[in-house]
Write a structure and sequence with these properties.
The complex is a heterodimer. Chain A has ten helices and no strands. Chain A is mostly helical. Chain B folds into two domains: about 90 residues, GMP Synthetase, Chain A, domain 3; about 50 residues, no CATH class. The longest helix of chain B is centred in the middle third of the chain and has 15 residues. Classes of the chains: A mainly alpha, B alpha/beta. At the A-B interface, helix 2 and helix 5 of A face loops of B.
């Protein structure tokens, strides 16, 4: 492989890691609700969403391993990297908080995933297009679930309204990162592999405005933002997730069941 | 889009199914008898999970299966069941590939599969016509409501009949 081809393969590897880590970290986070959700139906609902996200992450991380060409499988990539090697957006590592805060996070990221995967399904990269085509169907269903809940809570009691509005204010700044195009995003979009983030943002914004209006919630103002998980610069919360998630593989290397 | 697939199985013995068409037919018969691990009333063929059985130039059969949901915990088990069934049927060397694209759709559930789902007490997906009401499988009333978007498995949602008050499962459209 010549130098240019090797660089292109490395860029695609890092890009696929970003997408895979989003599903992996969010799936792990949501899994914390199992056994703790407010009702059995929501326990099942959140666990089902988490399972789909981890299923999507498996497809993406296995592909990343092939692109890297260093013989690392999906498990090694998922369980044996350091914090700064994770490239998920910071929003998905934020704590679950109460049920309302989890729902707000799921709507914000779910609308992004839906708009993003819809476009990625036309990627010049055949493998990514296939994974996106599968994921988009699942993400559409996830967003229906979280949006329904956001409307119930936002347009519910004064208490539920206040809680989700406050969660929205708290999580809103993290959405900046989703659309902040960097060199890697640009490179991937230039060669037709990834969608343009400006286009995804416009569609996301319209979708979010519609659900916030129905939920009688106010869209927060955009504010300065400093975290860039997609470049490996994470908030303090990721380390705790990884400690939990990686413990078994690090303590009992190669354990299977 | 198809995943990598190692070839497994013994060479086809002359007596069992030596010619290609007979091996393909034998594979379909064997797969038609494999029950879905989570909805045993249906076979993997009824559910549209088995996409194709083809003969390859190297004489191995290629069997394509599509997972229903990426997070479905039954996916690994389904692959094992497919391999066991094909080995048991003596179809000769074969490779099982995961087919990702086009993505599995509930529209692929066969008419026979829909009938079996309904007999089993699970309302089949409405796919083509989402405005059609979900009728209670017990009393046939159309006065029903969705209690939860997610049910006991990734492929089902939970509904309730307002007439007979019984909860029931509905196979999600995807």
């Amino acid at each position: 492989m010549n130098a240019t081809a090797a660089e292109a393969a490395d860029s695609l590897f890092r890009y696929v890691l970003r997408l895979g880590d989003l599903g992996l970290v969010l799936g792990q986070r949501l899994g914390e609700w199992v056994g703790h959700a407010p009702a059995l139906e929501e326990d099942l609902g959140l666990a089902n969403v988490a399972l789909d996200l981890i299923g999507q992450a498996r497809l993406l991380l296995a592909y990343a391993g092939e692109l890297e060409g260093r013989d690392r499988g999906e498990d090694e990539i998922a369980f044996l990297r350091e914090q700064s090697e994770y490239l998920n957006p910071t929003l998905v590592e934020q704590p679950n908080g109460d049920f309302g805060q989890t729902i707000v996070r799921q709507v914000l990221i779910g609308a992004f995933q839906l708009e993003f995967f819809e476009r990625l399904a036309n990627s010049a990269d055949e493998r990514l297009a296939a994974i996106a085509g599968k994921a988009v169907k699942e993400c559409r269903y996830h967003l229906r679930y979280s949006s329904d809940w956001l409307v119930r809570l936002g347009d519910g009691t004064p208490e539920s309204h206040a809680r989700v509005q406050s969660a929205l204010e708290r999580l809103w700044p993290y959405t900046t990162e989703l659309f902040a195009e960097d060199d890697l995003d640009r490179e991937m979009a230039d060669c037709g592999i990834a969608p343009r983030l400006a286009e995804v943002r416009a569609a996301w914004s319209a979708r979010i405005d519609a659900v916030l209006a129905e939920a009688t919630l106010d869209r927060p103002r955009d504010r300065p933002y400093q975290w860039f998980g997609k470049r490996g610069e994470h908030s303090e919360h990721l380390g705790y997730i990884l400690a939990d998630m990686q413990y078994l593989q690090r303590a009992h290397s190669g354990a299977r069941w | 889009m198809i995943g990598a697939a190692p070839i497994i199985g013994e060479p086809a013995s002359a007596g069992v199914a030596a010619d290609a068409d007979a091996r393909v037919a034998c594979a379909w018969r064997a797969l038609g008898a494999v029950e879905d691990p989570e909805i045993p009333a249906l076979s993997l063929v009824d559910l549209g999970i088995v996409r194709f059985v083809k003969t390859q130039p190297d004489d191995a059969l290629e069997v394509g299966i599509s997972p229903t949901y990426t997070g479905c915990p039954a996916t690994e088990v389904i692959r094992q069941l497919v391999e066991q069934a094909l080995e048991g049927a003596g179809v000769g060397p074969f490779a099982v590939a995961h087919v990702l694209s086009p993505a599995w759709s509930s529209q692929w559930i066969s008419a026979e599969g829909r009938r079996k789902l309904a007999d089993y007490g699970i309302v089949p997906p409405r796919d083509a016509d989402s405005s059609r009401p979900v009728a209670c499988p017990r009393c046939q009333s159309v006065d029903t409501e969705c209690i939860s978007h997610f049910g006991s498995t990734p492929c089902k949602a939970l509904h309730r009949c307002r007439q007979c008050l019984e909860p029931f499962e509905y196979f999600k459209c995807i």
